[in-house]
Amino acid sequence: MITAERLTKRYGDKTAVDAIDFTVEPGTVTGFLGPNGAGKSTTMRMVMGLDRPSAGSVTVNGRAYRDLPAPLHEVGALLEAKAIHGGRTAYNHLLWMAKSNGIARRRVDEVIDLVGLTDVASKRSGGFSLGMGQRLGIAAALLGDPGVLLFDEPVNGLDPEGIRWIRTLIRSLAAEGRTVFVSSHLMSEMALTADHLLVVGKGRILADTDMNDFIARNSAGYVRVRSPQAGELAERMTGQGWRVERADDGAMAVYGATAEAIGDIAGAHGLYLHELGGVQASLEDAFMRLTEDSVEYHAGVPGAAHAPDSAADQTHLTPAGV
Ligand SMILES: Nc1ncnc2c1ncn2[C@@H]1O[C@H](COP(=O)(O)OP(=O)(O)OP(=O)(O)O)[C@@H](O)[C@H]1O
């Protein structure tokens, strides 16, 4: 378990992490989500004892990192830009780590096999692709068979096969009962990986929630309908107690109804339909809405960081996405 209490990190007058409290529980994947500069990496570095809190504390299984008697056996991490001696072979890199931590050589073979690097174990890691480097970083994190694992943006720059591999690995580590803490700035990725969600912005916690609850609350869909007899159809639909909003392209967004029910009403009254389809709100939009006030570096596209509010804007919601 990871526990943060009033955890704070200041760099000069910049507060990167602002008195946050959270716990990361065993047996689940906790997604740590936030826009660039939100404080995710700083928090993870403090968990790993690589940065000292300016105030507050963070512990792994009840102890600060520096007080852990055998840290590699308690917590492993894949942090961004991990420094690996590129001149060493993957095997020797891990063997050197194992030896300096009293870990048996057999475990090196195990983790190399686990991350699928057996064929390149005798190659210098300096020549590794990004994906191979990530696998080596994960092998190092797993070396001491720790119960707590941190992954900082593990899928950054990986191809779809690599992304799927990491997602499956992360899920299986949690299924074994480990505490798994994964940072990302992609809601869609987290929706597929995490059970619990910790959203941060500008160093503060914006949401601490079960992933299924977040999805249920934020992915409420609607049905998009177009009809040349829109006025009459709208009346019939509101008569059913459904909420009808009009988009500026002439379509209607109907809340509280299924596409089938709308089709039946239209059919029963001889009304033509030119378009009828369910639209699911995107979780990415929900995340943007949650964090929009805490995005440090807005893109130069007007309204880019703003989620749709009005009915007219609802048509921007992506179909059936997460
Ligand atoms: N060593 C440092 N010195 C000064 N400021 C820092 C340092 N490390 C981080 N910061 C600042 O602290 C804030 C949080 O940065 P951090 O890297 O933790 O965010 P993040 O959520 O991991 O972002 P990203 O998704 O871009 O990696 C940023 O404003 C960053 O510029």
Explain the overall architecture.
The protein is an alpha/beta fold. It folds into two domains: 2-217, 3-Layer(aba) Sandwich (Rossmann fold), CATH 3.40.50; 219-322, no CATH class. 33% of the residues lie in helices and 24% in strands. It is built from eleven helices and 13 strands. The chain has a six-stranded mixed beta sheet, sandwiched between helices. It has a four-stranded antiparallel beta sheet with strand order 11-12-10-13, covered by helices on one side. α3 (90-100) packs across α4 and α4 packs across α5. It is elongated and about 80 Å long. Bound molecules: adenosine-5'-triphosphate. The site of adenosine-5'-triphosphate has 12 residues, from β2 and α1.
Largest sheet: 6 strands, mixed
Q: Would you count the extended β strands for me?
A: 13
* Reported CATH architecture of the largest domain: 3-Layer(aba) Sandwich
Q: Spans of 5+ residues with little confidence (pLDDT < 50)?
A: 300-322
So, the CATH homologous superfamily of the largest domain? P-loop containing nucleotide triphosphate hydrolases
Helix fraction, binned, reads 25-40%
Q: Mean pLDDT score, rounded?
A: 87
Question: H/E order of the elements?
Answer: EEEHEHEHHHEHEHEEHEHEEHEH
- Percent of residues in beta strands: 15-25%
This entry's quaternary arrangement is single chain
Taking strands numbered 1, 2, ... along the chain, how are they ordered across the largest sheet?
A: 5-6-7-3-8-9
What is the structural class? alpha/beta
| Large-scale geometry | elongated
CA-CA gap between termini: 29 Å
Total helix count?
Answer: 11
Radius of gyration: 24 Å
Specify the CATH class of the largest domain. Answer: Alpha Beta
Tally of domains: 2
Which fold name corresponds to the CATH topology of the largest domain? Answer: Rossmann fold
Bound molecules: adenosine-5'-triphosphate
Region (Disordered): 302-322
InterPro entries: AAA+_ATPase, ABC_transporter-like_ATP-bd, P-loop_NTPase
Organism: Haloactinopolyspora alba
Keywords: ATP-binding, Nucleotide-binding, Transport
